[in-house]
Amino acid sequence: MNKLMLWGIIVTVVMLAATWMAVGGSKGGMGEDIVNQLAVAGAVALVIITVFVVIKYVRQMQNDTASGVLADENWDGIGEYKNELPFGWAIIFLGSIIWAFWYFIAGYPVNAYSQIGEYNEDVAAANAKFAQAHENMSPEDQVDMGQSVFIVQCAPCHGLSADGIDGKAADLRERISKEAVVYAIKNGGNNMKTDFPGGMPPMMLSDDAQINAVADYIAAGMPAGHKGAEAYMMGGCTGCHGDNGEGMPMVGPKLNGYDVATVASVLKDGKKGFIGAMPAFTNLTEPQINALGAYVSSLK
């Protein structure tokens, strides 16, 4: 018997003895419990198999010699043999792929129970209940709710008075600033994709004087008799935004003030313009969106 085998036997005996002592075998710790007996039997089998598998591969490393055809590539003179993929490995690999497909499609379908799914269902039920409870709010109650939503969701950027913060968020007391109109004319925009999928092409006007006139007109609230009204019509703005900036469904948003639909469009898709980017607010319910639109529309 060589030294490696002797050491294997010694290690096996020591580990088995330690296992026996750990479960209280000398004091009858296993008792008549079949679960304990099976657990100890598994531990014994694991110790024996592990030790002798290690012995096998250590002896193989000591005695085996490499043979076969070397690959063309080598690294610092160290080459690699062209070994075929073991058949068993290939079977295990393909079997794992087949099992994975079965697991996700049939064994545990993606629509099966999950905590996330249960949470989403509870949220949807709560939102439906909330929408039903606030289905017929008065305009005053709608504005009050909108103010509450605004303080939580919008005030961190737009300020408690909705006057914007240091030029980093728009002043919501006015529909749009002159600088924002100039930016939109020159660069175009496709912010409200859900309600206005066509977007706005850039450079509908190219003359700076006309651009400034239109921007002044819209920023001023589009009053009658304004000098920019003619440039607004000549520039083709009426075709999408209406003669008086009232907007056209699915074509162009309202320009002569805020309304619920305009605010809702921005909340659904976010916005990018002269100041910067505003993210979409997909966490709001329909009553909250309508209330927020009513509140912003009431600001002066």
Would you write up a description of this structure?
This protein is mostly helical. 55% of the residues lie in helices and 5% in strands. It has a two-stranded antiparallel ribbon with strand order 1-2. β1 (70-75) and β2 form a beta hairpin. α8 packs across α9 (228-234) and α11 crosses α12. The termini are far apart. 17% of the residues are buried. The model has no long low-confidence stretch (mean pLDDT 86).
Rounded mean pLDDT score: 86
Radius of gyration: 37 Å
Low-confidence stretches: none
Q: Enumerate the strands of the largest sheet in spatial order, edge to edge or round the barrel.
A: 1-2
What percent of residues are in strands? under 5%
Helix-residue proportion: 55-70%
Number of strands: 4
**Coarse morphology:** elongated
In short:
With 300 residues, the chain is mostly helical. The chain has helices at residues 3-22, 34-63, 87-107, 115-133, 139-153, 155-158, 178-187, 208-219, 228-234, 238-241, 260-269, 286-298; strands spanning 70-75, 78-81, 271-272, 277-278.
Helix and strand topology:
Blueprint: H1 3-22, H2 34-63, E1 70-75, E2 78-81, H3 87-107, H4 115-133, H5 139-153, H6 155-158, H7 178-187, H8 208-219, H9 228-234, H10 238-241, H11 260-269, E3 271-272, E4 277-278, H12 286-298
